[in-house]
Design goal:
Strand content: 25-35%
Number of helices: 6
Shape: globular
CATH superfamily: Adenovirus Type 2 Hexon, domain 4
Radius of gyration: 25 Å
Largest sheet: 6 strands, antiparallel
Helix content: 10-25%
CATH architecture: Distorted Sandwich
Structural class: mainly beta
CATH class: Mainly Beta
Number of domains: 1
Length: 467
Protein backbone atom coordinates (compact mmCIF):
# COMPACT_ATOMS: atom_id res chain seq x y z
CA UNK A 1 0.00 0.00 0.00
CA UNK A 2 1.31 3.43 -0.90
CA UNK A 3 2.16 5.58 2.12
CA UNK A 4 -0.08 8.60 2.74
CA UNK A 5 1.46 12.04 2.46
CA UNK A 6 0.49 14.71 5.02
CA UNK A 7 -1.05 16.74 2.20
CA UNK A 8 -3.55 13.91 1.70
CA UNK A 9 -5.17 14.49 5.08
CA UNK A 10 -5.02 18.28 5.39
CA UNK A 11 -8.69 18.51 4.44
CA UNK A 12 -9.66 16.35 7.41
CA UNK A 13 -10.77 18.72 10.18
CA UNK A 14 -9.61 16.39 12.97
CA UNK A 15 -6.06 16.53 11.62
CA UNK A 16 -5.94 20.21 10.73
CA UNK A 17 -3.89 22.32 13.15
CA UNK A 18 -3.84 26.06 12.90
CA UNK A 19 -4.33 29.07 15.15
CA UNK A 20 -7.65 30.84 14.82
CA UNK A 21 -7.74 34.49 13.83
CA UNK A 22 -7.96 37.18 16.45
CA UNK A 23 -9.48 40.66 16.54
CA UNK A 24 -6.52 42.99 16.95
CA UNK A 25 -8.52 45.71 15.19
CA UNK A 26 -10.67 46.07 18.36
CA UNK A 27 -8.95 48.30 20.87
CA UNK A 28 -11.36 47.79 23.76
CA UNK A 29 -14.96 47.11 24.76
CA UNK A 30 -17.12 48.43 27.58
CA UNK A 31 -20.72 47.99 28.62
CA UNK A 32 -22.13 51.47 28.25
CA UNK A 33 -25.23 52.66 30.10
CA UNK A 34 -27.62 55.13 28.49
CA UNK A 35 -30.10 57.10 30.61
CA UNK A 36 -33.45 58.68 29.68
CA UNK A 37 -33.43 62.29 28.56
CA UNK A 38 -36.20 63.30 30.98
CA UNK A 39 -37.25 62.26 34.49
CA UNK A 40 -36.16 58.98 36.08
CA UNK A 41 -39.43 57.93 37.78
CA UNK A 42 -42.70 57.09 36.01
CA UNK A 43 -46.03 56.31 37.68
CA UNK A 44 -48.46 53.63 36.57
CA UNK A 45 -51.16 56.16 35.63
CA UNK A 46 -48.98 58.59 33.69
CA UNK A 47 -48.88 57.00 30.22
CA UNK A 48 -45.42 58.55 29.97
CA UNK A 49 -42.91 58.36 27.14
CA UNK A 50 -39.38 57.29 28.07
CA UNK A 51 -36.84 58.59 25.56
CA UNK A 52 -33.26 57.36 25.23
CA UNK A 53 -30.61 59.05 23.08
CA UNK A 54 -27.88 56.60 22.15
CA UNK A 55 -24.90 58.74 21.20
CA UNK A 56 -21.16 58.28 21.44
CA UNK A 57 -17.72 59.63 20.72
CA UNK A 58 -15.92 59.68 17.38
CA UNK A 59 -14.63 56.10 17.68
CA UNK A 60 -17.50 54.39 19.49
CA UNK A 61 -19.32 51.57 17.70
CA UNK A 62 -22.36 49.94 19.30
CA UNK A 63 -23.19 46.24 19.08
CA UNK A 64 -27.00 46.28 18.89
CA UNK A 65 -27.23 42.54 19.57
CA UNK A 66 -26.05 43.20 23.12
CA UNK A 67 -28.68 45.89 23.80
CA UNK A 68 -30.89 45.43 26.87
CA UNK A 69 -33.64 47.62 28.31
CA UNK A 70 -33.75 47.68 32.10
CA UNK A 71 -35.77 49.31 34.84
CA UNK A 72 -36.67 48.96 38.49
CA UNK A 73 -40.32 48.13 39.18
CA UNK A 74 -41.63 49.43 42.51
CA UNK A 75 -44.57 48.13 44.52
CA UNK A 76 -46.61 51.28 45.12
CA UNK A 77 -48.76 49.68 47.84
CA UNK A 78 -46.13 48.00 49.99
CA UNK A 79 -47.50 47.40 53.47
CA UNK A 80 -45.45 44.26 54.08
CA UNK A 81 -48.19 41.82 53.03
CA UNK A 82 -49.22 42.80 49.50
CA UNK A 83 -47.10 41.49 46.66
CA UNK A 84 -46.94 43.17 43.28
CA UNK A 85 -47.36 40.34 40.76
CA UNK A 86 -46.34 41.04 37.14
CA UNK A 87 -48.50 38.90 34.86
CA UNK A 88 -46.03 38.36 32.07
CA UNK A 89 -42.69 39.93 31.12
CA UNK A 90 -41.00 43.35 31.44
CA UNK A 91 -42.17 44.25 27.93
CA UNK A 92 -45.79 44.06 29.16
CA UNK A 93 -45.40 47.50 30.75
CA UNK A 94 -44.94 49.24 27.38
CA UNK A 95 -47.53 49.73 24.66
CA UNK A 96 -45.44 51.42 21.99
CA UNK A 97 -41.85 51.59 20.73
CA UNK A 98 -40.37 54.07 18.29
CA UNK A 99 -36.81 53.70 16.95
CA UNK A 100 -34.97 56.40 15.02
CA UNK A 101 -31.57 56.30 13.28
CA UNK A 102 -30.35 59.78 12.53
CA UNK A 103 -33.54 61.63 11.68
CA UNK A 104 -35.27 58.55 10.20
CA UNK A 105 -38.04 56.58 11.90
CA UNK A 106 -36.97 53.02 11.11
CA UNK A 107 -39.43 51.17 13.39
CA UNK A 108 -42.81 52.16 14.82
CA UNK A 109 -44.38 49.39 16.90
CA UNK A 110 -47.85 50.03 18.35
CA UNK A 111 -49.25 47.37 20.68
CA UNK A 112 -45.66 46.64 21.67
CA UNK A 113 -46.61 44.26 24.50
CA UNK A 114 -48.77 42.25 22.09
CA UNK A 115 -45.96 42.18 19.51
CA UNK A 116 -43.49 40.92 22.13
CA UNK A 117 -45.92 38.13 23.10
CA UNK A 118 -46.23 37.11 19.45
CA UNK A 119 -42.45 37.04 19.01
CA UNK A 120 -42.10 34.97 22.18
CA UNK A 121 -43.92 32.15 20.40
CA UNK A 122 -41.10 32.12 17.83
CA UNK A 123 -38.36 31.48 20.40
CA UNK A 124 -36.87 28.19 21.44
CA UNK A 125 -36.80 27.07 25.08
CA UNK A 126 -33.25 28.31 25.60
CA UNK A 127 -34.18 31.83 24.49
CA UNK A 128 -37.24 31.82 26.75
CA UNK A 129 -35.11 30.80 29.71
CA UNK A 130 -32.72 33.66 28.89
CA UNK A 131 -35.65 36.10 28.78
CA UNK A 132 -37.10 34.84 32.06
CA UNK A 133 -33.78 34.95 33.88
CA UNK A 134 -33.42 38.60 32.89
CA UNK A 135 -37.02 39.37 33.81
CA UNK A 136 -39.45 38.25 36.49
CA UNK A 137 -38.39 34.60 36.59
CA UNK A 138 -40.65 31.74 35.57
CA UNK A 139 -43.68 32.88 33.62
CA UNK A 140 -46.94 31.35 32.55
CA UNK A 141 -45.65 30.78 29.04
CA UNK A 142 -42.33 29.26 29.98
CA UNK A 143 -43.09 27.19 33.04
CA UNK A 144 -46.66 27.48 34.32
CA UNK A 145 -48.22 26.32 31.10
CA UNK A 146 -46.09 23.18 31.14
CA UNK A 147 -47.85 21.76 34.14
CA UNK A 148 -51.34 22.33 32.82
CA UNK A 149 -52.44 18.69 33.11
CA UNK A 150 -56.04 17.65 32.58
CA UNK A 151 -57.52 14.86 34.64
CA UNK A 152 -60.59 14.15 32.58
CA UNK A 153 -62.82 15.18 29.72
CA UNK A 154 -65.48 17.07 31.63
CA UNK A 155 -69.01 15.83 31.17
CA UNK A 156 -70.09 19.43 31.58
CA UNK A 157 -67.54 21.37 29.50
CA UNK A 158 -68.43 24.64 31.20
CA UNK A 159 -67.07 23.19 34.46
CA UNK A 160 -63.65 22.61 32.92
CA UNK A 161 -61.89 25.28 34.94
CA UNK A 162 -59.40 25.02 37.80
CA UNK A 163 -61.16 21.94 39.22
CA UNK A 164 -59.90 19.89 36.29
CA UNK A 165 -56.42 21.37 36.26
CA UNK A 166 -53.77 20.02 38.62
CA UNK A 167 -52.08 23.40 38.95
CA UNK A 168 -53.46 26.88 38.59
CA UNK A 169 -52.39 30.41 39.37
CA UNK A 170 -52.84 31.34 43.02
CA UNK A 171 -50.95 33.46 45.58
CA UNK A 172 -48.89 30.49 46.80
CA UNK A 173 -47.47 29.40 43.43
CA UNK A 174 -47.50 32.62 41.44
CA UNK A 175 -44.67 34.89 42.51
CA UNK A 176 -44.34 38.58 43.17
CA UNK A 177 -42.33 40.92 45.37
CA UNK A 178 -42.95 43.23 48.31
CA UNK A 179 -40.71 46.19 47.57
CA UNK A 180 -38.97 46.45 44.21
CA UNK A 181 -37.21 44.43 41.54
CA UNK A 182 -34.76 45.39 38.80
CA UNK A 183 -35.35 43.58 35.51
CA UNK A 184 -34.09 43.61 31.93
CA UNK A 185 -35.38 42.50 28.58
CA UNK A 186 -34.03 42.27 25.06
CA UNK A 187 -36.42 43.96 22.61
CA UNK A 188 -37.67 41.84 19.71
CA UNK A 189 -37.56 44.70 17.21
CA UNK A 190 -35.55 43.20 14.30
CA UNK A 191 -33.29 46.26 14.05
CA UNK A 192 -31.57 45.08 17.22
CA UNK A 193 -30.51 41.89 15.45
CA UNK A 194 -28.18 43.78 13.11
CA UNK A 195 -24.79 42.08 13.15
CA UNK A 196 -22.88 45.18 11.97
CA UNK A 197 -21.49 47.60 14.53
CA UNK A 198 -23.08 51.07 14.26
CA UNK A 199 -20.83 54.19 14.53
CA UNK A 200 -22.73 56.29 17.07
CA UNK A 201 -21.02 59.55 16.15
CA UNK A 202 -22.34 59.26 12.57
CA UNK A 203 -25.61 57.43 13.30
CA UNK A 204 -27.11 58.34 16.70
CA UNK A 205 -30.07 56.18 17.71
CA UNK A 206 -33.21 57.26 19.56
CA UNK A 207 -35.49 54.77 21.34
CA UNK A 208 -38.86 55.85 22.73
CA UNK A 209 -41.00 53.64 24.97
CA UNK A 210 -44.57 54.52 25.95
CA UNK A 211 -46.00 53.07 29.16
CA UNK A 212 -49.31 51.20 28.99
CA UNK A 213 -52.48 53.30 29.21
CA UNK A 214 -54.17 50.68 31.42
CA UNK A 215 -52.05 50.23 34.58
CA UNK A 216 -53.77 46.89 35.33
CA UNK A 217 -52.84 45.30 31.99
CA UNK A 218 -49.33 44.08 32.94
CA UNK A 219 -50.12 42.82 36.46
CA UNK A 220 -52.30 40.32 38.30
CA UNK A 221 -55.34 42.24 39.54
CA UNK A 222 -56.75 41.85 43.08
CA UNK A 223 -60.26 40.46 43.56
CA UNK A 224 -59.79 37.95 40.73
CA UNK A 225 -59.71 34.32 41.82
CA UNK A 226 -57.57 33.80 44.92
CA UNK A 227 -55.83 37.15 44.55
CA UNK A 228 -57.30 39.70 46.96
CA UNK A 229 -56.69 43.24 48.19
CA UNK A 230 -54.94 41.78 51.21
CA UNK A 231 -52.31 39.77 49.34
CA UNK A 232 -51.94 41.53 45.99
CA UNK A 233 -50.98 45.10 45.12
CA UNK A 234 -52.24 46.89 42.03
CA UNK A 235 -50.10 50.06 42.22
CA UNK A 236 -46.70 50.23 40.54
CA UNK A 237 -44.05 52.72 39.48
CA UNK A 238 -41.02 52.49 37.24
CA UNK A 239 -37.78 54.15 38.22
CA UNK A 240 -34.23 54.29 36.87
CA UNK A 241 -34.90 53.02 33.33
CA UNK A 242 -31.68 52.38 31.43
CA UNK A 243 -30.33 50.86 28.25
CA UNK A 244 -27.08 48.91 28.30
CA UNK A 245 -25.05 47.78 25.28
CA UNK A 246 -21.51 46.81 24.31
CA UNK A 247 -19.60 49.71 22.80
CA UNK A 248 -16.31 49.04 21.01
CA UNK A 249 -13.41 51.24 19.95
CA UNK A 250 -11.46 50.34 16.85
CA UNK A 251 -7.74 50.57 16.17
CA UNK A 252 -6.94 54.19 15.31
CA UNK A 253 -5.65 53.32 11.87
CA UNK A 254 -8.74 51.28 10.98
CA UNK A 255 -11.06 53.98 12.30
CA UNK A 256 -9.28 56.57 10.14
CA UNK A 257 -9.92 54.38 7.10
CA UNK A 258 -13.63 54.09 7.94
CA UNK A 259 -13.82 57.84 8.50
CA UNK A 260 -12.45 58.37 5.00
CA UNK A 261 -14.96 55.90 3.55
CA UNK A 262 -17.80 57.73 5.30
CA UNK A 263 -16.66 61.04 3.82
CA UNK A 264 -16.48 59.75 0.25
CA UNK A 265 -18.91 56.83 0.17
CA UNK A 266 -21.24 55.19 2.73
CA UNK A 267 -21.74 52.18 4.99
CA UNK A 268 -24.86 50.25 3.85
CA UNK A 269 -26.60 48.05 6.42
CA UNK A 270 -29.40 45.61 5.60
CA UNK A 271 -31.89 44.86 8.35
CA UNK A 272 -35.52 43.95 8.95
CA UNK A 273 -38.21 46.28 10.19
CA UNK A 274 -41.85 45.58 11.02
CA UNK A 275 -45.26 46.97 10.08
CA UNK A 276 -48.16 46.22 12.41
CA UNK A 277 -51.89 46.40 11.82
CA UNK A 278 -54.73 45.69 14.27
CA UNK A 279 -58.30 45.17 13.13
CA UNK A 280 -61.60 44.40 14.81
CA UNK A 281 -63.35 41.34 13.37
CA UNK A 282 -66.74 39.62 13.70
CA UNK A 283 -67.40 36.34 15.51
CA UNK A 284 -69.99 35.31 12.93
CA UNK A 285 -68.30 35.86 9.54
CA UNK A 286 -65.16 34.95 7.59
CA UNK A 287 -62.17 37.26 7.85
CA UNK A 288 -61.30 38.99 4.60
CA UNK A 289 -58.74 41.73 5.21
CA UNK A 290 -56.73 43.87 2.82
CA UNK A 291 -53.32 44.94 4.09
CA UNK A 292 -52.00 48.16 2.64
CA UNK A 293 -48.27 48.38 3.34
CA UNK A 294 -45.94 50.20 0.96
CA UNK A 295 -42.90 47.94 1.34
CA UNK A 296 -40.86 46.41 -1.45
CA UNK A 297 -39.43 43.29 0.21
CA UNK A 298 -41.84 41.59 2.63
CA UNK A 299 -40.17 38.53 4.19
CA UNK A 300 -42.70 37.12 6.67
CA UNK A 301 -46.23 37.75 7.83
CA UNK A 302 -47.65 36.76 11.24
CA UNK A 303 -51.27 36.73 12.38
CA UNK A 304 -52.64 36.38 15.92
CA UNK A 305 -56.12 36.69 17.41
CA UNK A 306 -57.76 37.83 20.60
CA UNK A 307 -61.14 36.82 22.04
CA UNK A 308 -62.30 36.91 25.66
CA UNK A 309 -63.99 33.50 25.24
CA UNK A 310 -60.67 31.70 24.84
CA UNK A 311 -59.73 28.94 27.27
CA UNK A 312 -57.71 30.17 30.24
CA UNK A 313 -57.74 27.16 32.56
CA UNK A 314 -56.46 28.18 35.98
CA UNK A 315 -54.54 31.12 34.58
CA UNK A 316 -57.27 33.66 33.87
CA UNK A 317 -55.55 36.16 36.13
CA UNK A 318 -52.39 36.26 34.04
CA UNK A 319 -53.81 35.94 30.51
CA UNK A 320 -54.50 39.48 29.36
CA UNK A 321 -55.50 41.00 25.99
CA UNK A 322 -51.84 41.45 25.12
CA UNK A 323 -50.65 37.89 25.83
CA UNK A 324 -53.73 35.75 25.10
CA UNK A 325 -53.22 34.53 21.53
CA UNK A 326 -56.62 33.01 20.83
CA UNK A 327 -57.59 30.05 18.68
CA UNK A 328 -61.21 28.77 18.48
CA UNK A 329 -60.00 25.29 19.53
CA UNK A 330 -59.48 26.79 22.97
CA UNK A 331 -63.15 27.68 23.52
CA UNK A 332 -63.79 26.73 27.15
CA UNK A 333 -67.55 26.21 26.97
CA UNK A 334 -67.39 23.84 24.01
CA UNK A 335 -64.64 21.35 24.71
CA UNK A 336 -62.27 20.31 27.43
CA UNK A 337 -58.77 21.25 26.34
CA UNK A 338 -57.30 17.77 26.33
CA UNK A 339 -55.79 15.79 23.46
CA UNK A 340 -59.02 15.57 21.47
CA UNK A 341 -59.24 17.48 18.21
CA UNK A 342 -62.40 19.18 16.94
CA UNK A 343 -62.04 19.97 13.27
CA UNK A 344 -65.34 21.86 13.10
CA UNK A 345 -63.84 24.76 15.10
CA UNK A 346 -60.44 24.83 13.40
CA UNK A 347 -59.36 27.49 10.89
CA UNK A 348 -57.89 27.66 7.41
CA UNK A 349 -55.66 30.47 6.12
CA UNK A 350 -54.65 31.74 2.70
CA UNK A 351 -52.90 34.91 1.47
CA UNK A 352 -53.04 36.51 -1.95
CA UNK A 353 -50.73 39.24 -3.28
CA UNK A 354 -51.65 40.19 -6.83
CA UNK A 355 -51.59 36.91 -8.75
CA UNK A 356 -49.55 35.13 -6.07
CA UNK A 357 -51.37 32.85 -3.61
CA UNK A 358 -49.67 31.60 -0.42
CA UNK A 359 -50.02 28.73 0.19
CA UNK A 360 -51.37 27.38 -3.09
CA UNK A 361 -54.11 25.56 -1.16
CA UNK A 362 -55.63 26.88 2.09
CA UNK A 363 -54.04 25.48 5.23
CA UNK A 364 -55.66 22.38 6.71
CA UNK A 365 -55.93 23.38 10.33
CA UNK A 366 -53.65 24.04 13.26
CA UNK A 367 -51.03 21.41 12.36
CA UNK A 368 -50.63 22.81 8.85
CA UNK A 369 -50.40 26.34 10.25
CA UNK A 370 -47.60 25.25 12.59
CA UNK A 371 -45.68 23.81 9.63
CA UNK A 372 -45.80 27.16 7.85
CA UNK A 373 -44.88 29.02 11.05
CA UNK A 374 -41.73 26.91 11.36
CA UNK A 375 -40.62 28.01 7.90
CA UNK A 376 -40.44 31.65 9.05
CA UNK A 377 -37.66 30.76 11.50
CA UNK A 378 -35.91 27.87 9.74
CA UNK A 379 -37.59 25.26 11.96
CA UNK A 380 -36.47 26.77 15.26
CA UNK A 381 -39.91 27.43 16.78
CA UNK A 382 -40.45 25.54 20.04
CA UNK A 383 -43.93 25.60 21.58
CA UNK A 384 -45.93 23.01 23.53
CA UNK A 385 -48.76 21.49 21.41
CA UNK A 386 -51.54 22.31 23.88
CA UNK A 387 -50.21 25.86 24.25
CA UNK A 388 -50.14 26.39 20.51
CA UNK A 389 -53.76 25.41 19.95
CA UNK A 390 -55.23 27.16 22.98
CA UNK A 391 -53.76 30.46 24.20
CA UNK A 392 -50.48 30.73 22.24
CA UNK A 393 -51.60 30.39 18.63
CA UNK A 394 -49.66 32.25 15.96
CA UNK A 395 -49.98 31.83 12.20
CA UNK A 396 -46.97 32.70 10.08
CA UNK A 397 -46.01 32.51 6.40
CA UNK A 398 -42.63 32.87 4.74
CA UNK A 399 -42.83 35.20 1.72
CA UNK A 400 -39.20 34.95 0.54
CA UNK A 401 -38.16 33.22 -2.66
CA UNK A 402 -34.94 32.02 -1.01
CA UNK A 403 -34.38 32.13 2.75
CA UNK A 404 -30.60 32.35 2.51
CA UNK A 405 -30.61 35.41 0.23
CA UNK A 406 -31.50 39.04 0.89
CA UNK A 407 -33.99 41.05 -1.16
CA UNK A 408 -36.07 38.05 -2.24
CA UNK A 409 -39.27 38.98 -0.40
CA UNK A 410 -42.54 39.92 -2.06
CA UNK A 411 -43.13 43.41 -3.42
CA UNK A 412 -46.16 45.08 -1.82
CA UNK A 413 -45.69 48.34 -3.70
CA UNK A 414 -47.32 49.37 -6.97
CA UNK A 415 -50.84 48.55 -5.78
CA UNK A 416 -49.91 44.97 -4.89
CA UNK A 417 -51.99 44.82 -1.74
CA UNK A 418 -52.08 41.67 0.36
CA UNK A 419 -55.40 39.99 1.14
CA UNK A 420 -55.73 37.67 4.15
CA UNK A 421 -58.56 35.14 4.06
CA UNK A 422 -59.46 33.17 7.19
CA UNK A 423 -62.50 30.94 7.53
CA UNK A 424 -63.64 27.72 9.23
CA UNK A 425 -61.89 24.56 8.16
CA UNK A 426 -65.21 22.67 7.98
CA UNK A 427 -68.87 23.54 8.44
CA UNK A 428 -70.43 26.56 10.08
CA UNK A 429 -70.05 25.80 13.80
CA UNK A 430 -67.71 28.76 14.24
CA UNK A 431 -70.49 31.11 13.09
CA UNK A 432 -73.35 29.63 15.08
CA UNK A 433 -71.94 28.19 18.31
CA UNK A 434 -73.44 29.96 21.33
CA UNK A 435 -70.54 31.01 23.54
CA UNK A 436 -72.67 32.02 26.50
CA UNK A 437 -73.03 35.72 25.78
CA UNK A 438 -73.61 35.93 22.03
CA UNK A 439 -73.10 33.80 18.95
CA UNK A 440 -69.93 32.88 17.12
CA UNK A 441 -66.40 31.73 17.93
CA UNK A 442 -64.46 33.62 15.28
CA UNK A 443 -61.93 36.09 16.80
CA UNK A 444 -62.86 39.53 18.11
CA UNK A 445 -59.60 41.13 17.02
CA UNK A 446 -56.75 40.33 14.66
CA UNK A 447 -53.14 41.51 14.81
CA UNK A 448 -50.94 41.36 11.70
CA UNK A 449 -47.15 41.79 11.67
CA UNK A 450 -45.16 42.08 8.43
CA UNK A 451 -41.38 41.74 8.54
CA UNK A 452 -39.73 43.51 5.63
CA UNK A 453 -36.17 44.25 4.56
CA UNK A 454 -34.74 47.76 4.72
CA UNK A 455 -31.42 49.45 4.06
CA UNK A 456 -29.74 52.02 6.26
CA UNK A 457 -27.04 54.03 4.49
CA UNK A 458 -24.65 55.81 6.85
CA UNK A 459 -22.64 58.74 5.53
CA UNK A 460 -20.47 61.35 7.21
CA UNK A 461 -23.13 64.04 6.95
CA UNK A 462 -26.38 62.06 6.87
CA UNK A 463 -28.22 58.79 7.45
CA UNK A 464 -30.59 57.63 4.70
CA UNK A 465 -33.31 55.01 5.18
CA UNK A 466 -34.72 52.89 2.33
CA UNK A 467 -37.69 50.56 2.84
Amino acid sequence: MEALEITDVLNENVLRYRLKGGASYIRDKRIKTFYPSSVSTYSSNSNSVIRFNLTGGANEWINLRSLLIGFTLLNGDNDGTKLLRPAYKPSSFFQRMRVMAGSNVIAEIPDLNRYEAMMDILQDDGSRNYTDNLGFGETFYNEGNRFLSYTQLATNPASNTTTNVIEHANPTNFGGFKNKKTVYYRPSCPFFNVSNFIPLSYCPIVIELTLVSDPLEPIVVPNVGDFTNTNTSWVWNIEAPIITADVHRLDDGLFAEYAEILEKQSLPITFNSVSIQAQTTSRTTDIFTTIVRNVSKADNIFVSFYSPVGYKGGFGEVLKPHNLLYHPLSFQNTVSTNQSYFEDIDLQFQLSIGNTVIPEMPTLGVQDNYKHLQETRNNHVSIKPHMYRTNSFLAGFNLKKLNSANYTGLNLKNNSNMVVRIKPLYGTTLYTQNNGTDTGLMPDKMYIVIEHECILEIKAQSVIFYD
